[in-house]
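Annex B. Sample input.
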Amino acid sequence: MSALIRFARSPEGLAGLIILTLLASVAALAPLLFPGDPLRIAGTPMIAPFTDPSLPLGTDRLGRNVLAGLVHGARASLIVGIAAAIVAVLIGSIVGTLAGFAGGLIDEALMRVVDAFQIVPGFLLALAFVSVLQPSLPIVILAIALGAWTGPARLARAEVLSIRERDYVASARIIGMHPLEIALREVLPNALPPVLALSAVIVAGAVLTEAALSFLGLGDPNIVTWGSMIAEGRAVLRSAPYLSIVPGIALIATVIGTYLLGEGVSAMLSRREQQS
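Annex B, continued. Sample output.
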């Protein structure tokens, strides 16, 4: 049974895939749906939702289009979440593979580095990193990845420890392959599937962390994000709660969709392991 068929039989995975596909489609079409700067003034301030057909979700305190900000904010959230997960999984997989395959002092040294990063909560590490440097989208992505790579590193190491003694790895040693080549070409590809399943959790965490940083005013000031929209609506929460509720719902939908997709991938992998 192919991996796609196994995934299609996972209802939670399909639900997550549908949610994220819709969000990704909206994010990709943002420049066409709302061309220009979403931070520009679009109308009278504080227009309530569904009262002006040209501004379906109304405007904020400065007269900016809430729907345009919501759509462009999806681009920022997905870019940060996916990019941070890619960087974290890449760093974690390489460190974990080298630690598990090399063993001895190299393993001990790399795992102590992992412990050092795990001592500090990921959000505090990102907060300190962004506070020191100038907030920008690449800096936010790197800051989130620095607090998220330790999980993939430990998982990759555990997988490598169970793989490195298998027959095909021993065969690679016998034919004279370099240890680094064995680690990257023979061991790492087989240790990756569980790590990739973890990437969905990292994406969800990265989206929430980026929103929290933007809420605290530490996001990229040149782009609109859901976190900054929630923070903007906080000042008028009683008179215009929709300014915080609308981006909050989008944020929750993204996290739930990512979580469900991760569940589907995990179910697909577990079924494959049961069959093997």
